[in-house]
Amino acid sequence: MLAQTLKQSFDHYFEAPIEAWLEFAEFCEPIRFKKDEVIKAQGTAERYFYFIIEGSAGVFLWKNHNFVCLDFALEKSACCDYMSLLTGESTELEIVALEKSEMIRMPRAEFHRLGQKSVGRVIMQMTAEASFIEKQQQQIELLTKNAEERYHILQKRFPGIELRIAQKHIASYLGITPQSLSRLRKLQA
């Protein structure tokens, strides 16, 4: 079942055979997080690659006495401090469960060991490339779109996100105040 979920989630990046996902799943263990539980603390190195079965997580960076939300991850997607996972070095990124979440995790060493195999290497490369494209698109939108346009894009990317994620996190992600987000939401109603 887990292997099939992984396959379906990653098929739009790369259609690996189910056997690759069966092997991938063997290296994983289930874990649950409470809402607002820190998954990876700032100033630490990432120890796991996570995949969200149910729930959501946010990537945060401390800036000017406040955490800024850089990204969201919802069910059927990977979630981790990928830069730290690859380098083994600590970063200032913090990963937090934004709602009660069920995930699987793979230890960093197993993640790298799996990447030594041909299918694992392709899966990792395709996932990294897709992540890079998403982050580039996010940066372009931040520089070329206004807050209302970015909010519509966010809603399209994550339907119903406003019902699941705190307004302060959505506002932070959009680069606006919670009050400005509230005004945007009223304009939509």
Textual characterization of the structure:
The protein is an alpha+beta fold and 189 residues long. It has a domain of 116 residues: Jelly Rolls. 49% of the residues lie in helices and 27% in strands. The chain is built from 9 helices and 10 strands. The strands form 3 sheets. Strands 1-10-4-7 form a 4-stranded antiparallel β-sheet. Strands 2-9-5-6 form a 4-stranded antiparallel β-sheet. A two-stranded antiparallel sheet has the order 3-8. Strand 5 and strand 6 form a beta hairpin. The longest helix is centred in the C-terminal third of the chain and has 27 residues. The radius of gyration is 17 Å and the shape is globular.
Cα Rg: 17 Å
The number of strands is 10
Question: Hey, roughly how much beta strand do the residues contain?
Answer: 25-35%
Give the strand order, joined by hyphens, for the main sheet.
Answer: 1-10-4-7
**Arithmetic mean of pLDDT:** 89
Unreliable residue runs: none
Describe this structure in a few short sentences.
Pfam families: cNMP_binding (PF00027). This protein has 189 residues and is an alpha+beta fold.
